[in-house]
Amino acid sequence: EVQLLESGGGFVQPGGSLRLSCAASGFTFSDYAMSWVRQAPGKGLEWVSAIYGGGDKSYYAASVKGRFTISRDNSKNTLSLEMNSLRAEDTAIYYCAKAHDTPGYYDFGSWGQGTLVTVSS
Amino acid sequence: QSALTQPASVSGSPGQSITISCTGTSSDVGTYNLVSWYQQHPGKAPKLMIYEVTKWPSGVSHRFSGSKSGSTASLTISGLQAEDEADYYCCSYAPGNTHMIFGGGTKLTVL
Fold first, then answer.
1. Region B14-26 average pLDDT
2. Chain B contact set for A37 (CB, 8 A)
């Protein structure tokens, strides 16, 4: 059974930094692209970033490019999201998601339970 | 690039069929068969219902079906059940600065 467990969320002031982690199990982690998808309180879903299974290619939404960095450690089955220069509009639940069965990052077949990031002064 | 356009809400009675539309552009939905649909119940993580426009993940009821015409994708739910009441989101590959784009979401109410 696929399991994704996010951690690292919390309260941070504008301009601050936070690092999210996602511990994966139940599948061959290095075989799948992984993504971060966020959801602001009461709002819709927004794709944030994706990384291929080998970790060689990563992609970012325009809203976070240059501030967020996605990475993965295939030896530890862990996905990370380093978030810098945080803004109030980054406040959201951040979900870790595994690609379904496609080679790319074009769908999200399994999701974690999410971790809440609150950016406020 | 703006979000894909979905109706804010749809409703139907048990046993009926409903369709949720998802309108994009020639840069995303219109060109790529990489549209997926997600169901989200309140306080829960989203669940993949349809991928690559028409395909079902294992375990998803075939009461849910997907299609596409031009730049508009659609999710049809037949034989509506009370447990289908949820928010539904479409998503498409959108190469360029956006990469992946979601619709604004549709709240389905089962009357």
1. 97
2. 46
